Every structure is written in C-alpha cells, then in structure tokens.
Amino acid sequence: MTELVTAAQMRAIEQAAIESGEVTGLELMERAGQGVVEAIFEEWPELDMEVPDVPAASGEGGAAPAAQGRPPRDISGPKKHRAVVLCGPGNNGGDGFVVARLLKARGWEVSVWELAAPGEGAPDAVACRVAWLEAGGTISTWDEIEPLGAPDLLVDAVFGTGLTRPIPVALANMFRLFRDDWEGAARRERRKMRRVSVDIPSGLSADSGEILIDWEDERGEFPEGWPGFMDWYFDTDLTVTFHNAKLGHFLGAGGESTRKLKVKLLRGLGFTDSPRELPVSVEGHVRLIEPVFHGHRARSDVWFSFVNKHHGHKFNHGHALVMSGPPGQGGAARLAARGALRIGAGLVTVGCPMRAVTEHAVQLTAIMVKGLDGTHGLGEILEDKRITGLCLGPGLGLGPATADLVRIALEAKRGTVLDADALSRFQRKPDVLFDMLHDNCVLTPHGGEFARLFPDLAERLDAQENTATYSKVDATREAAKRAGCVVLFKGADTVIAAPDGRCSINAAVGDRAVPWLATAGAGDVLAGMITGLLARGFDAMSAAETGAWLHVEAARSFGPGLIAEDLPEELPKVFRALGL
Ligand SMILES: NC(=O)C1=CN([C@@H]2O[C@H](COP(=O)(O)OP(=O)(O)OC[C@H]3O[C@@H](n4cnc5c(N)ncnc54)[C@H](O)[C@@H]3O)[C@@H](O)[C@H]2O)[C@@H](O)CC1
Ligand SMILES: Nc1ncnc2c1ncn2[C@@H]1O[C@H](COP(=O)(O)OP(=O)(O)O)[C@@H](O)[C@H]1O
Ligand SMILES: [K+]
C-alpha cells in the first residue's frame, strides 16, 4: 500500500532532509521543477517535439501559394510550444519558476504570471524567480493579464501544501476565467491546452481535499449563472506531486479533481527507489489501499493469506450468518449473503424470522436458510462455534428486535459487520452500542448513518468546509476510537480506521472512478463481502480493507449498467484477473 501524508508530515520530511545536510531547500525545489517537466513529457510525449506549423490558407501567413495540382508546401518552419505558468507567492510558485526556466531552455515560449512576488519567507522561491529573470524570462502580474497566444500547456503553481487560508472567491473565479480564455484561444489556433497542477490543484486543501474558498468575499459582485461549486479550484488534467501523495489527492473534491496523479521522487530525501517507505518516522500516516500481486513489490499480508486459502473442507473457510428482517424485506440480506459466499466463505446461512423462511427458500440455493425464533433462536444457533462471521443490518428493520439481535450477536464475540438498520437503530443511544462492540467488529456507515452515530464528528466535518483543519480521515479515526472497533466510512473516498490509529483510504477516483457503484444495494453486498472475509479468519481491519477494495474492483470490472446483484457475480472474474 502507498503511504499518504499530510502537509505537515511532508514539511517534516523535507525539514529533516534539509537539516541533515543531505540536500538544500533550493535543490529540492529544483528537483521538484524537474519532476514536473519530466512528468509533462511522460504524459504528453508529443510536447517533447516541435509543433509543425498548420499550413495557412493561400495568400495568408507564410505558406507558399499552392503549385497547380500539388498540395501547398509548408515553408514557415516549426512553431514553438507555448506555456503559461501561474505562480503563487510561496514555494509552490518557486517550483513554477523552475518549470518555466526548464521549458524555456528547451526552446518553449513561456509566459509567467505572478499573483504576488515571493517574500523573505520563501527564499528558495525568490532565488528561483531570480534565476528565471536571469535566463531572460519576464513576469507579468495578474492584473495585467490580457489575452495572449494560445498555450499548449497551462501550469498551475499558485498554491500547494501551504494553502491553509481560504482564497477569495474572486481569485477562484480568475482560475476559471484564465482557463476558459486560454482554452478558447487554443481551440481557435487548433492547439490543445493541457493543464497541469504542481503538487495539488490550487484551491484545494492537501489535508482534507476540501475546496478552500472565502465565500463572504465579494461574492455579490458576480453575475447570475455562477458555475457550480465543483468549479472552484484549479481544474486540471495532470497533478504532479512530490515524494508521497497527499491525503487531499484522494479525499472529497480533491479525489474528484485529481484525474491523473504522478508522484515524483525528490532524491536526497533518504529515498532510494520507492515512495512506499517513509524515510523518517511519520506518525499517524494513512495508507492508500492498493494491493499488488505481481512485480517487484512485496505482497501484503492480507493478499498473501488470500492467495493461500487453506485447503481442506468447507468449514476451513468459515461459516457466515447473515440476519434478515421480516418477509418482503429480505432482498438486502440475500445480497449480503451472496457477497459473503462469492468472496470465499465456506458456508453462508441467512437467518430469518420463521415467517420469512418461504420467501428466502424460493430464492436461495447455495445459501442455506434458517428460521430463527428471535433473539432466543440467534443465541441458540450461535452455540455452533463454526459460525465465524456475522452480518446484521441490511433490511433488518428499525424495531426494538434489532437492538436485541445486535446485543446477542455481539455477546458471541464473532467477527461481526454492523450496517444500515443495525447502526441507525442506535441513533438515540450510540453509547449503548459502543459499550457492546469488540475489536472484531466492523461498522460500515454511509454519510447519513455516520451522522446518526457520531453527530458531533459529522457536524465538525460539515462545518470545516472552508478551513481544512478536519478531514474525513480525522473523523473516521475518532469514530473508530470511540466505537472501539473498525469503522468504514463509505463513499468514493472510503476511509477505514481502527481504534489503534491505523487508517487507510480506498479511493474510487481518477482511473478507479466507478460512479455507477452508487446503486441501491451496493452497500449490502459490501457488508456481506466483509462478513465473508471475517468468517474466513481475516482480522477486522484487513477484512474491511480487502472487502472495500474488491467491491470497487468488481464494479470496475463490470462497468456501467451495474446493479447490486452483479457485484458478487463479478468477483470470480476479478480473482482470475488477479491471478488467484
Ligand atoms: N523546500 C520545500 O519545502 C519544498 C517545497 N516544495 C513546494 O512548496 C510548496 C509548499 O510551499 P509553501 O509552504 O511555501 O506554500 P504554498 O506555496 O503552497 O502556498 C502558500 C503561500 O500562499 C500564501 N497564501 C496562503 N493562503 C493564501 C490565501 N488565501 N490568499 C493568498 N495567499 C495565500 C501564503 O502566505 C504563502 O506565501 C509545495 O506544495 C511544493 O510545491 C517543493 O519545492 C519541494 C521542496
Ligand atoms: N460515487 C461513488 N463512487 C464509488 N463508490 C461509491 C460511490 N457512491 C457510493 N459508492 C459506494 O457504494 C456503496 C453504497 O452503499 P450504501 O450507501 O450503503 O447504499 P445501499 O444501502 O443502497 O447499499 C458504498 O460501498 C459506497 O462506498
Ligand atoms: K498548485
């Protein structure tokens, strides 16, 4: 798994490298700029070549008049590539000056626009600005911006990890206007404008992925028909970050805007080849779930145990029990049960009220059905120690029986997933639930359920929109600590945390985006998949991480048009593709 860092952790890493004398701040900035240029040419190799001029129409420009019967000959020579670099007042802007200088040295026409000159607080950026001027570069200020020739490349080096204050909405709007103006100009000149952000799209918090906008600022001055909220950051095609990806690349709006992310190593930070190991002790880091089966990277323990499924009979693979609600509401439990079976539990039983047995029996084949006489019946069946995974919540109902079933289930101390109604039922008294939970449990709330169990954390998360001091990672970590078990907070940026501080993100963004997974019942299947893994003996954190990752892989493999029923059925294909 890849380690993700916060802005403060990144600063600590850089600081440690600088203090050790291994590298200077200026060298780091130079490498960062080089990394961006390298990434640009890797992503768009065509930019590394000269642009052939478009032959002008007869009589215009430099093209020769067409000789009879022959196409016009281009005598105007190659055009230069053009870049516009937007520089901010800090070290992110410093990186921008390096990029500008390196592109100019390769023969590009480069215009630099400066929000404000870097000051004493950013001496390395000042030095890079001087180097740009010494290389013959010029600098315009943002209030002098005028339409110019269409660029092939727009480089956003305005704000990076140092953005902590919200930017004025007027500035955010300028990002959009530049982008639109230059994109229009590029279209007119038949060029394609690529947008690249240095470190993180400007306007986003590197810690929370939130858009940092000061909405109070001059908002009223702008005309009707404002663009939607999601346009208020520097919308970009490629983000080039350094050393390690940041949390903000995967959370919230940051996840949605980071379509393509390249991580460039800054050699001299105690690194050899891998961004996966952190060179200095970084407390409380977060991992991106990204199991790798082949290649030079070591397999994680989770995947090792998955591959090495024991041989033996079905009970070696665990027995999952999924509790169902009353007749007519059993679909959710059946979806969960199917997920548990397909992910490899040896046996799966749907436990239901006696009157729901017929409904389940006509629908289920490989999955067993057991009529249970309420809490008493659940207690009885749990005397069978071969039942190793429990799932309660999908379609269970919000009546008092649900709370009793949860209590009996938790007393049995098996691997247990609580989802949906099993969470919402405790809205009024979450502490009652927290007192019963044990460390082999996984709670799988979506946003609404999270707010029911942890209203103060959800409120804090909502309220911090413009300050970026509190992220989904912070909220989920706090929730896990309070609950005393693993909490998986769902979404395209699913965050999974354990009470001991371990935390990971399962990001369904960028090339892993699966918006079609937002379909009724998808969450029930996820609960079942995690239950199946618990039944197989995975610990709570590994079960949640592996289940969440496979859930998205199944959705990716199936593609648009997916309905919840398709998810379990897609798993064999995912396993095959993984070489299992
Ligand atoms: N030596 C280092 O620390 C390195 C830093 N690097 C770059 O440096 C960046 C971090 O640099 P900084 O910490 O200087 O911060 P940034 O350059 O990201 O931005 C902070 C600057 O913007 C100003 N600012 C913040 N909020 C503002 C607002 N709302 N309105 C107007 N101005 C605002 C701050 O006063 C500060 O000058 C990284 O993202 C990375 O691009 C890289 O060069 C690698 C080496
Ligand atoms: N835009 C999205 N991209 C990726 N996954 C998503 C997205 N929206 C929702 N999901 C996932 O889909 C599932 C929906 O679960 P949930 O909200 O409980 O719905 P339901 O109760 O209908 O099953 C969760 O696993 C969630 O992480
Ligand atoms: K930036």
UniProtKB/TrEMBL annotation:
Annotated binding of K(+), by residue: N92, D156, S202
Chain residue ranges for the region called Disordered: 52-80
Functional note: Bifunctional enzyme that catalyzes the epimerization of the S- and R-forms of NAD(P)HX and the dehydration of the S-form of NAD(P)HX at the expense of ADP, which is converted to AMP. This allows the repair of both epimers of NAD(P)HX, a damaged form of NAD(P)H that is a result of enzymatic or heat-dependent hydration.
Chain ranges of the YjeF C-terminal domain: 297-578
Family: Belongs to the NnrD/CARKD family. In the N-terminal section; belongs to the NnrE/AIBP family.
The keyword NAD belongs to this UniProt entry's keyword annotation: yes
Record keywords: ATP-binding, Isomerase, Lyase, Metal-binding, Multifunctional enzyme, NAD, NADP, Nucleotide-binding, Potassium
GO molecular function: ADP-dependent NAD(P)H-hydrate dehydratase activity; ATP binding; metal ion binding; NAD(P)HX epimerase activity
Protein EC: 4.2.1.136, 5.1.99.6
Summary of subunit composition and partner proteins: Homotetramer.
Required cofactor names: Mg(2+); K(+)
Co-factor binding comment: Binds 1 potassium ion per subunit.
GO terms of biological process kind: metabolite repair; nicotinamide nucleotide metabolic process
Annotated YjeF N-terminal domain residues: 10-277
N-terminal signal peptide: none
Binding site for (6S)-NADPHX: 91-95, 160-166, 199, 332, 395, 446, 524
Binding positions (AMP): K490, G491, A492, D493, T494, G523
Catalytic activity line of the entry: (6R)-NADHX = (6S)-NADHX; (6S)-NADHX + ADP = AMP + phosphate + NADH + H(+); (6S)-NADPHX + ADP = AMP + phosphate + NADPH + H(+); (6R)-NADPHX = (6S)-NADPHX
Compositional bias per record (Low complexity), positions renumbered to this chain: 55-70
InterPro entries membership: Carbohydrate_kinase_pred_CS, CARKD, Nnr, Ribokinase-like, YjeF_N_dom, YjeF_N_dom_sf
This protein's name: Bifunctional NAD(P)H-hydrate repair enzyme
Source species of the chain: Pelagimonas phthalicica
